[in-house]
Amino acid sequence: MRKLNPTLETTFCGIPCLNPFWLASAPPTNCGEQIMRAFDAGWGGAVWKTIGAPITNVSSRYSSIDWEGRRMMGFNNIELISDRPTETNLQEIAEVKRRYPKHVVIASLMVESKREAWHEMVKRAEGAGADGLELNFGCPHGMSERGMGSAVGQVPEYCEQITSWVKEQARTPVIVKLTPNISDIRISARAAKRGGADALSAINTINSITGIDLDTFQPNPNVDGKSSHGGYCGPAVKPIALNMVQQIQADPTSALPLSGIGGIGSWRDTAEFILLGCATVQVCTAVMHYGYRIVEDMQDGLLAWMSEKGFASVDDFRGLSLANVREWKQLNLNYQIVARIHEDRCIGCQLCYTACWDGAHQCIHLDRTESKRNTTRTPAMVEAEATQRISTTPIPKLDSGSVVHSSAITPLERIPRVDEHHCVGCNLCSLVCPVEDCITMERIENELPFESWEERCAKGMVPPGTEEVVSTNT
Amino acid sequence: MSRRIPFHEQVVTPPEVVERFGDLHPPFDRQAAIPEANRCLFCFDAPCTSACPTHIDVPRFIKKIVSGNLTGSARTILDANILGASCARACPVDVLCEGACVMHRYNKQPIEIARLQRFAMDSFYERGVPLPFEPGADTGFSVALIGAGPASLGCAAELRRRGIRAELYDARPLPGGLNTYGVAEYKLPLVESLREIAMLSQLGVEFHFDAMIDAVALDEIERKCDAIFLGVGLGAIHKLGITGESLPGVTNALDLIAGYKSGQCTGVPLRVVVIGAGNTAIDAAIASVRLGALEVTMVYRRGPEQMSAFSFEYEHARNEGVKFIWHAQPLNIREDHAGLSLELLRLVATEDGSLVAEANSEFFLATDMIVLSIGQSTHTSFLAESGKVAKVRLEHGRIIVDRATGQTTNPKYFAGGDCTNGGREVVDAVADGKRAGIGIAAWLEAQHAKA
Question: Which of B41, B44, B401 to mutate to test the interface with A (most CBs of A within 10 A)?
């Protein structure tokens, strides 16, 4: 077999990139000193923290959601754009580009919605040496109250108008950063495309209130007893971001080179965004949590995976999964799977049992040691029987001859059984099972051909009035 | 009558005992408890709950730690086991809840249930909140409980929650039985047992201390109350039946343990021999090390495979430097100018498991103190006046009961704990007492309905 030496080098609407890993416009890209350290660590590009109208920040600014002992599963901020003088930022852009000519520096911009103001800012940013411009139409807090950020992104006409103003002046690629705080992100994407955008980045943060302090009744982050809605990001938002990325890239009137953003922290996340059509990715929260050093494994892991899969560059797999995302009505109604519990791996936690009874379709049973199958015994009956059991501490001297139960072996009565005739193949049991490959979803060969709802409708096989599938993907 | 000064404030543990018998398993703080609690899978019909004789709903109390509902967590524990704080420290969890944890089955550490339970109970005490149960509305029924150990306490709590008067009689000056006087201090300090009982007293339990019940007194009690619960435990430690057993340097494990726990003994001589290889023998051997002995030797008739101590207890003793002499039978004890001399005879196990003496294998072991720990006799003589038939049926000295209700062959008498099960753990006694408390209430109600 030919040894594959994949490369991470790529281009993004004409900008050569050492790798697809960029830092998003955020606190990790606040100043030149930070960005140069990030480049030393291995980041291929950075979108400078948004330069624009003068602002004042508050303290505190961040809050987060922890989940079962893990910190920052979701992260929220009410920090505004750069609080440094524009001139300082531009000087530092020039300095960074002089010292790191091969690394990508994108200037993120946000100014008041006036043609001259945008022209002026574009001219200055490009004059400083920025490789491209990102228009921040997504910031959901503070700036939007002043008619900027998501206030622009949420109104397609403004989005298109400002993009076209920028394009009148810009010589470098123009990337429009989209807000997810809109019912259909494709509407803003189409507007940006009409305005002449060269590329898109998505998603910006999601409007959020992360939590309320149960002693003070005040929300977080707390600013003198009060808070304000912030922008949500981090691992929790990745699925939302992936969906929006797919929506944009699957729609010809929206699709443009796309820089994916939202909960990315590993090479795996990166691969998923690229498989849905992103050319680069942007990272913030994971770096705020663990530092620039995370990029080492993002590079290393992605290259190893690319070698294993036979991809020479990110272009080789970009968008590969788009064809696998369809509308619900196009899915195969005759595809049938059922859950199989592998007894040798089962530890007897019975989470699949309780999940199936209370959260799914009541087709997992605890009857392996009963003389005949019992599908009518409910969880409440099982619990009631348990309270009647008499247990004693095994004392060797008193219990000689009794069977010593090994904790390494799961007793048969604790291993649930799937009633395959009633299993609907929903996956829930396999999702709650804590043991890898203990519950697998197996295909049932039913000999039925592919058939979708769409086809059934076309054949007149569905009751009148039921043809329309309610879907968000229309 | 309950005393005004809380039990745990009536005793002072000597500083040398406090210093030498520090926690075997140090407590969790919140930072450690929550990640550990988060590891719990929240099994359905959880094996840990099943394995617990009192069926504490383990995943439920653990998830309440995670949610920050610490009062609810303690209530979940206490609802199933009124001595949940003691059991968190004293239970042999390796063979109970933690031994049953499903984590064993995929190469993961079992959840540290005991330490989480202690965390929940310690937090509960720290907040000084009242017991989260009220006594039931008075039914007019009255039950006498003989013995104030874990079985009677477990029974009394159920009775009081059902509005039944509970009067406990105990021969000692303080309640708790072996839970107070017999558990190694590094597992369960005496004051902690008493603190727990002080809390349980909020249910209105009445204690009669220094009350040795004989057959006459039992007749008197029987006349006054509606039912009787026997939670008398076991009797004295067996004697070896050899010469020299009454020498001043010879004692038994229970007296040694009760002695240091109650502050009457704060040191032992340099050389100690413990005869026997059960869990109590191990406790006595380790106590001897902690109390200053430099050479502690355990002597057992059989080999390590047959010892009745749990393997983790054996391991603990070895880690404390205790030495073992296997297959040796004590012949006699003599006193000489250098101390005591224990004569031993080597035994050999035959194929059928019986032990035979090895010819001319006698040898001597010089020591300063000998601690007997070869099992306890039963304490049942008070159940009958001499020459009369006992009030309840016994088998091998154990009181026969219906396991589900604790009822003896005499319907008015119920029993639980060591006097029925032959000598198990605190948690078994509490479970027996709990079932009996529920059984007594049901029986009394049925009797009342008939009348």
Answer: B44
pLDDT digits 0-9 by tens, A300-321: 999 999 999 999 999 999 999 9
For A409, residues 6+ apart whose C-beta sits below 8 A from its C-beta are B105
Q: Chain A residue closest to B45 (CA)?
A: A383
The answer to pTM > 0.90 is yes
Distance CA(B126)–CA(B74), nearest Å, equals: 12
In a domain, B104, yes or no: yes
Say whether both B37 and B116 belong to one domain.
yes
Cβ separation A351–B43 shorter than 8 A: yes
**pLDDT tens, position by position, B184-207:** 999 999 999 999 999 988 999 999
Token pair recorded at residue B266: 């704060």
Q: B118 Cβ partners below 8 Å, 6+ apart?
A: B25, B27, B28, B85, B88, B89
Number of residues written out for chain A: 474
Residue A69 is nearest to which of B35, B105, B403, comparing CB atoms?
Answer: B35
Give yes or no for A68 touching B (CB within 8 A). yes
Looking at the fold, whether B227 and B245 belong to one and the same domain comes out as no
The domain ranges of chain A are: 10-324, 328-381+409-458
What value does the mean pLDDT of chain A take?
Answer: 94
The ipTM is 0.90
Contacts of B425 in chain A (CB under 8 A): 393, 395
In angstroms, what CA-CA distances link A13 with A198, A256, B51, B220?
Answer: 7, 9, 64, 100
Question: Across the interface, do A387 and B50 touch by the CB < 8 Å criterion?
Answer: no
Active site residues of A: 139
Cβ contact (<8 Å) for A393 and B101?
Answer: no
What six digits make up the tokens of B278? Answer: 């059960």
Please report whether residue B196 resides in a domain. Answer: no
Q: Supply the range of the domain harboring residue B77.
A: 7-127
Query: B300: domain CATH number?
Result: 3.50.50.60
Please give the structure tokens belonging to residue A463: 């009751």
A10-324: CATH superfamily: Aldolase class I (3.20.20.70)
Chain B interface residues facing chain A, Cβ-Cβ under 8 Å? 34-35, 38, 41-45, 47, 49-53, 55, 66, 91-92, 95-96, 99-106, 110, 278, 308, 403-404, 421-425, 427-428, 431, 435
**Is domain A328-381+409-458 in CATH 2.40.50.140, yes or no?**
no
Q: Is residue B205 part of a domain?
A: no
Which stretch of DSSP H or E encloses residue B299?
Answer: strand B295-299
Q: How many domains does chain B have?
A: 3
Q: Is residue B197 part of a domain?
A: no
